[in-house]
Design goal:
single chain; 156 residues; alpha+beta; 5 strands; binds FE2/S2 (inorganic) cluster
Length: 156
């Protein structure tokens, strides 16, 4: 079937089965490999994207469930105010180790900051609990989110 999806402000027509996960459409059809495959079962967060601003696991989101919603991926989240602050803080705090989980971490953190400009530790834990990091970068992730939250008003 043919589906029209909006990714990072661009419209794409894709010809796939309706139950194809968005993750595979992004990676294999559109060639956008910044979004990672980890578990395929909504357990690790590596595949996180935004759908209408909400952090969403693309590995279990079928293409026929998306409709006209706006998809944002790691390739474009830096163009949003919250995403730019998160990415700067990630660099300042040298969060990344192997990097594999980090696209998903940044997407979850950006969605949190866009909806909650002053998250508490509990808010951060709630928002980030589904994003697993085998390298154990959790402490730096928390500090980076706090730095981003202190860096001014949020938007987008
Ligand atoms: S690959 Fe989607 S949550 Fe792990
Ligand atoms: S930085 Fe290696 S898995 Fe998170």
């Amino acid at each position: 079937m043919s589906f029209t999806i909006k990714v990072n402000g661009n419209t794409h027509n894709v010809d796939v089965d309706g139950d194809t996960p968005l993750l595979w459409v992004l990676r294999d059809v559109l060639g956008m490999t910044g979004t990672k495959f980890g578990c395929g079962m909504a357990l690790c967060g590596a595949c996180t994207v935004h759908i209408d601003g909400a952090a969403t696991r693309s590995c279990i989101t079928t293409i026929d469930s998306i409709g006209g919603s706006a998809i944002t991926t790691i390739e474009a989240v830096g163009a949003t105010a919250a995403g730019a602050k998160i990415q700067k803080a990630w660099l300042d705090r040298e969060v990344v180790q192997c990097g594999y989980c980090q696209s998903g971490q940044i997407m979850s953190a950006s969605a949190l900051l866009a909806s909650n400009p002053r998250p508490t530790d509990s808010d951060i834990d709630d928002a980030m609990s589904g994003n697993i990091c085998r390298c154990g970068t959790y402490a730096r992730i928390r500090e980076a989110i706090k730095q981003a939250a202190q860096s001014g008003p949020q938007g987008g």
